[in-house]
Every structure is written in C-alpha cells, then in structure tokens.
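#struct-help
A.M.: can someone run this one for me? Single chain, 115 residues.
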Amino acid sequence: MLELSKLKKLLGVKSCDKTKDIPLQFALDDTQDTILNYCNLKELPVALETTAYRMAMDLYRNESPGEESTPLGTVSSISEGDASTSFKSPTTEFKDHLLKDYKAQLRRFRKVGFR
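D.P.: on it. Structure tokens below:
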C-alpha cells in the first residue's frame, strides 16, 4: 500500500503541510492505476512499491497537479517573421516518457490480459 506520508518525505514536503495532500494523493493513485493497468494486475506487488514511489515523484514534479496552469514545455518551433514561438505541452511530452522510463521494471510483472 502506497502511503502519502512516505511520498511527502521523499519529496521533502513537511508532514504538517496539508496543502499538497490532494495533488500528492492524486500522483500516488494515478501511478498505481498506471502500473496495474500496464501489468494487468489487481494488486500492486510489494516489489514494485519503490518503482511506484519513483513514478509518483516524477509525476508530481513534472505535471504539477493542483496548479491552475502548467509550465511551458520545450520549444517546438520558432518563426522569425512576426516573431512566433510554439511550445510542446510538457504534460503530453512527459506522459510519453514516464511509462517508458519504468517499462524495464514493470515488464517483469506484466501478465497477459484478455478483454
């Protein structure tokens, strides 16, 4: 079972700071759902808890849940005539990489699923 208090300690958030509890719990829940869905599991194995905390930390730091606006992403294009700059969405860009960074650990627990 993933614990909010442990995630707070890992991120350096004071345990008395309740203002971040909802976004942090969301990061834990989303991470657990992602792992369970990818691996076709009903329960998170103890051996994947460390990986889950790492994923939750990455998710919290990169997606900033609970913030009204998301930070600008990387520059995707620049135009000189009439000075235009476009950015990639950091959320979309990050989601693509989050699972990829942890697939090696998750594959060991992946089960074949039929729908």
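A.M.: thanks! The longest strand covers residues 75-79.
D.P.: also worth noting: The chain has one domain: 4-107.
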